Automatic annotation (TrEMBL):
Record's compositionally biased regions (Basic and acidic residues): 237-255
Region (Disordered): 237-280
Protein name, UniProt field: superoxide dismutase
Species of origin: Amborella trichopoda
Primary residence: plastid
InterPro entries: Mn/Fe_SOD, Mn/Fe_SOD_BS, Mn/Fe_SOD_C, Mn/Fe_SOD_N, Mn/Fe_SOD_N_sf, SOD_C_sf
PROSITE patterns reported for this sequence: SOD_MN
Biased composition (Acidic residues): 256-280
Keyword Plastid: yes
Catalytic activity of the protein: 2 superoxide + 2 H(+) = H2O2 + O2
Amino acid sequence: MSMVFATGKYLKITHRSSIVAQFELKPPPYPLVALEPHLSRQTLEHHWGKHQKGYVENLNQQILGTELDGMGLEDIILASYNKGDPLPAFNNAAQIWNHEFFWESMKPGGGGKPSGDLLHLIERDFGSFKDFLREFVDTASAHCGSGWVWITYKANKLNVDNAVNPRPSENDYKIVVARTPNAVNPLVWDYSPLLTIDVWEHAYYLDYENRRAKYVSTIMEKLVAWDVVSSRLEVAKSRAAERAREEEERKRREEEFESEEEIDESEMFLNSDPEESEAE
């Protein structure tokens, strides 16, 4: 990831790009009427055609000529999060990513129950699929204000440096329900998002008014694309395994380097002249 250097909350302008629009408004992966009667065409038209369009236009203006210009969307999110003190581009970049991820998490005729490894991990970490659904809906309902509710795949324990850590296994990771305020995305915590539902009022108010729990329950029961979520889990597991291998290799190299330094120090001591040492 490219590093971003900023003074306060303002990015340094390094050049003026000739590219006017780096990011484009990406449509949902189905016709705007495809999710009816659960989500209306009117809701998607407003959500995608107005809110999402505004995020794309604003982001393109914010990054033009800055160090973020030319970076991918995820890199912009991670860089502009700025360790919890977000730069101006963060909200628009994160909202674009979140909305695309949200719409791709649904499909006509979706819902029901997942299968395979995803269901196994949900039942392992929540007791049952029913208990998982209850926690997910309760988490969304309890969220105060605007934001997102997520299913994520995350490390289950802290990997401690300078200690003997066992080889990572599947049990070191778990499925977690999380909620984030405003535009915040679990990527900034190094979680792997698997599914999200938008709980900003503009996402559901035309269809459900203030019944957020009903809105979330309906998506989970009627629209979630569990096959997509399962595919994301496999990608997350592969990334976790690759990172574990990289971490093992990093530690192996550190141990080899430390061992070589110890050998060099021992050889220097053995090759030193005792008489010279005494004379000194």
